[in-house]
Write a structure and sequence with these properties.
With 472 residues, the protein is an alpha+beta fold. It folds into three domains: 102 residues, Phosphorylase Kinase, domain 1, CATH 3.30.200.20; 177 residues, Transferase(Phosphotransferase), domain 1; 182 residues, Kinase associated domain 1, KA1 (TATA-Binding Protein, 2-Layer Sandwich), CATH 3.30.310.80. Helices cover 33% and strands 21% of the residues. The protein contains 16 helices and 20 strands. The strands form five sheets. A seven-stranded mixed sheet has the order 1-6-7-5-4-3-2. Strands 14, 15, 16, 17, 18, 19 and 20 form a seven-stranded mixed sheet that branches. It has a two-stranded antiparallel ribbon with strand order 8-11. A hairpin with a 3-residue loop joins strand 6 and strand 7.
Length: 472
């Protein structure tokens, strides 16, 4: 994800709907507006891609004391990148405006579809499955939406659901010493009873309650708790007074009863929802990874570990060698390093921070072949059940365990130093720093140590100017 700050722009460019915005986006129709922002449809003039641009007024944000709120929203959107969540592409700024460049979802709000009448059970189930997948992804990263409702659920061209509007969302860092949130927020008809009690609440359980209300609305076409008098409606919510229509199946009724349990301690959890019989019908767990800032789905041919697309278990040793050789016979030659690249490797002259995002990592020199290096990475990944993806002379290793900052993701790239020497650069691209350091020291470094010396004594003339295993 790219982030840019532009110090100056012409008044014409800063006005919505006039010319190009910062020379990159052609603004179109107004999609909506609020107290602090307006949202426009726009087109990237270079790629032709349609986007939605949220334009925020800096003066209003400053007066409203919303700076911390905006920063938190940006941080949250960077953390929750999922196929069922509206994506933030980049953030730009001028002296008077802030621009969120976001994914444009053509299908509009799910609310518009529900307002025409209740949905078929299979359609409602599909949307609910996608909603739970997105919410589960957020919760695993310590993000809680707190304002889930059909108006904040959008539909794309394929009819898939996208969660939007994280303006009221919170992160685990905001939890008080009692382990609870205390901010009163949400939309009245979808708010959980514990929020009404104003005694603190578990934000994950609050999102689950809202998901239950949404499921009821999708299946019934109306709200489970509704009254023209707001206080009367709050009383119904607090007591959990609702009735399911006769067309609800017994399985659905049992699930809704667990979702709309007024006691958060006994309310169903997301793992339990995913094991529910009604929920599991036709459910397909989304497997994806991000490459070049775009979502890529994992092929079903991948095995359970995700490390290989070829099954080696039934192959003999000679067949494996032939298969391995064939895989790399057409491997492109690594990119050559120029003088600037080599100088930048020295800690005293490292200028890479000017051009690329910083992060944990290391570099080492090896005389081993490119295929040997890639095979070694795959061996290590197989031992720890990491997924390996290859593109030319770049590799991505992704762990299967979810964390607050997502799964551990490591990128490795191979560069040619001389015809007989290569430099391997390793960087942490996602996940927790402590987890990266533990994995690097326990698995990666010991596994790659032999490669650092392989053939280098006989082929290298003088590699003393390049630091081995130098931490960035």
């Amino acid at each position: 994800m790219a982030f840019a700050a532009v110090a100056r722009t012409s008044k014409k460019d800063s006005n919505a709907g006039q010319g190009l915005l910062l020379g990159r986006y052609k603004l179109g129709k107004l999609l909506g507006h609020g107290a602090f922002a307006k949202v426009y449809q726009a087109r990237n003039v270079k790629s032709g891609e349609s986007v939605a641009i949220k334009v925020l007024d800096k003066e209003k944000i400053l007066k409203g004391g919303m700076i911390a709120h905006i920063k938190r929203e940006i941080a949250i959107l960077r953390r929750v990148r999922h196929p069922n969540i509206v994506q933030l592409f980049e953030v730009m700024a001028t002296k008077s405006k802030i621009y969120f460049v976001m994914e444009y979802v053509h299908g509009g709000e799910l609310f518009n579809k529900v307002s025409k009448g209740r949905l078929k059970e299979s359609v409602a189930r599909k949307y609910f499955q996608q909603l739970i997948s997105a919410v589960n992804f957020c919760h695993a990263r310590g993000v809680y939406h707190r304002d889930l409702k059909p108006e904040n659920l959008l539909l794309d061209d394929n009819g898939d659901l996208k969660v939007s509007d994280f303006g009221l969302s919170a992160v685990s860092d905001q939890i008080r010493q009692d382990g609870l949130f205390h901010t009163f927020c949400g939309t009245p008809a979808y708010v959980a009873p514990e929020i009404l009690g104003r005694k603190g609440y578990d934000a994950a359980k609050v999102d689950i309650w809202s998901c239950g209300v949404i499921l009821f609305v999708l299946m019934a076409g109306y709200l489970p708790f509704n009254d023209q008098n707001l206080m009367a409606m709050y009383k119904k919510i607090y007591r959990g007074e609702f009735r399911c229509p006769r067309w609800f199946s017994s399985e659905l009724v049992r699930l809704l009863t667990k979702l709309l349990d007024t006691h958060p301690e006994t309310r169903i959890t997301i793992p339990e929802i995913m094991e529910n019989r009604w929920f599991r019908k036709g459910f397909k767990h989304i497997k994806f990874y991000i490459e070049d800032d775009k979502f890529c789905s994992v092929e079903e041919a991948d095995d359970d570990s995700g490390s290989y697309t070829t099954d080696h278990s039934s192959m003999s040793e000679s067949e494996t060698e032939i298969e391995t050789r064939n895989r790399f016979c057409s491997l492109p030659r690594p990119a050559s390093l120029n003088a600037f690249d080599i100088i930048s490797f020295s800690p005293g002259f490292n200028l890479s921070g000017l051009f690329e995002e910083g992060g944990e990592g290391s570099r080492f020199v090896s005389g081993a072949s490119v295929s040997r290096i890639i095979s070694k990475f795959e061996e290590i990944a197989k031992v720890v059940c990491f997924t390996v993806r290859k593109k030319v002379c770049r590799l991505s290793l992704e762990g299967c365990r979810e964390g607050v900052k997502g799964p551990l993701t490591i990128a490795a790239e191979i560069f040619e130093l001389t015809p007989s020497l290569v430099v391997v650069e390793i960087k942490k691209k996602g996940g927790d720093r402590g987890e990266f350091e533990e994995f690097y020291n326990r698995e990666l470094k010991p596994g790659l140590e032999n490669l650092m010396m392989e053939k280098s004594l006989s082929t290298a003339t003088d590699d003393s100017f390049v630091p081995t295993d130098s931490e960035l």
